[in-house]
Amino acid sequence: MKNLKWKLLLLLLLAVFASGCSGQGEKPKDERFYEDDVTSEREDHIVVGFAQIGSESDYRIANSASFRETFCEKNGYYLLFEDGQQKQENQIKAVRNFILQEVDYIVLDPIVETGWDEVLQEAKSAGIPVILSDRSVTVEDEGLYTCWVGSDFEEEGRMAGLWLENYLQAEGRDEEEIHLVTLQGTPGSSAQIGRTAGFSEILQRHGNWNMLEYASGDFTQSKGQEVMTQFLKSYPDIDVVISENDNMTFGAIEAIEEAGKTCGPAGEIIIISFDAASEASFTAMKEGKLHADVECNPFLAPKVDEIIKRLERGETVEKIQYVEEQCFDAFMDLDTVMEERKY
Ligand code: AHR
């Protein structure tokens, strides 16, 4: 009996150590939000509440992993991670619960840009700094959040447009009538708004580029496939697909192949995608099924960590902080690119 007690204690200790840097702070939802005792673990650490969007894409999975790895106990943090399951109301509820929990910082990745004024005002009144990460918000008072770190989505859209401009020119197709369709991301999200706007800047320079339709695939593979299937039924002569993320692109490639067509440098339809955040996107380029992929860097947590450290030292931080990104295409030496990539 005595022996059993020690074994149980040992197992408990091992479980605590094994939790290490990933998944710490992961308690059952109800226990986390409604417990009123502040545990000693929390007292010794900077408590960060992260309201994540969901798990709709490879980008998102990598982004969540980045937060779990960075905001761990060994780095001095206690992370409360909430998955909004692609619903703004869940994210608002999560932020309110973080306020109730009196966290030190709130990190918010807002699914859409509007509808945040009230809850951000509540955080401000509670004296909790809010750091926006990845997507941004449109609010009446910019003072409702401390800063934002993420991608320049408009520049990403421009990069895609410029890539197409150069490619068509190199192919001698710059005077040809070009038919395009766009698979858009979640309507009203910064990534959708920015990429659509940036690409359309280049589109407007070309009278011969005819955008047949914009439709949302909600950044998911299944919706991307569904929408692309519809596009192919409605328009027999698509030359270019602009797909606002990789997972929709993977769905679109399936739809194109199911319709008996081909895409990528080895096929008929030109596809340009966004993210380049997983091996699968590089594989698609290497297999000749995808022309180009504009990077969207998911590893934002180290930047947020840096911001929090500066705020802890009482320093001011820049309001808007972009991460650097580039465009990859099927004609590069992608094996070397992947080897040299920091992530
Ligand atoms: O906000 C970034 C976008 O959101 C990524 O492009 C997409 O994959 C994700 O779902």
**Segments where pLDDT lies below 50 for 5+ residues?**
1-20, 22-37
Q: Tell me the fraction of residues in β-strands, as a range.
A: 15-25%
* Unique ligands: alpha-L-arabinofuranose
Question: Helical segment tally?
Answer: 13
Overall structural class, as computed from helix and strand content, comes to alpha/beta
Form type:
elongated
What multimeric state do the chains show? single chain
The largest sheet is:
6 strands, parallel
Describe the strand arrangement of the main beta sheet, using strand numbers. 2-1-3-4-5-11
The N- and C-terminal alpha carbons lie at a distance of: 50 Å
- Helical residues, percent: 40-55%
Taking all residues together, what is the mean pLDDT? 91
Q: How many β-strands, per DSSP? A: 12
Q: Compute the gyration radius: what is it?
A: 23 Å
Order of helices and strands: HHHEHEHEHEEHEHEHEHEHEHEEH
